[in-house]
Amino acid sequence: MVHLVTWIVGSILILLSGVHLYWMAGGKKGTIAVVPSKGRKPLFRPTMAATGAVALSLAAAGWFALALGGAAGRLPLSESFYSYGGWALSAIFLIRAVGDFRWVGFFKKHKGTVFAKWDSALYSPLCVFLGVCLVIMTLH
């Protein structure tokens, strides 16, 4: 079971990294739904460098998840690196799901935008799923 969870989490994170690389390369599909907005005006415009940093972070998180679950080779680091890293990565996703109480997460105040709808329907639930799966993987 943990092996399957490992592959699912790692695959999702690597896929999301690829989507960010697509945007970094100039792709436009889906961009209206991924940045919080005030009405139709985005709160910020991600730079190419920021999008690349997110892509790199997601790829690293994907590799880490695969290594944590034993599906990829581990770096020669202490077991506590993987344990603390698993808890930290899990916390990042669970905190993202809760959100900032304004624009993102389950408890956001601003609703009714394209981003807010996708955040409630997909992004926040996905973050809970990833966070809980990482807890399971870390405990295993």
TrEMBL record:
Q: Which domain of life is it from?
A: Bacteria
Q: Which UniProt keywords apply?
A: Membrane, Transmembrane, Transmembrane helix
Query: Pfam families this protein is in?
Result: DUF3995 (PF13160)
Give TM regions.
6-25, 46-69, 81-99, 120-139
Name of this chain's protein: DUF3995 domain-containing protein
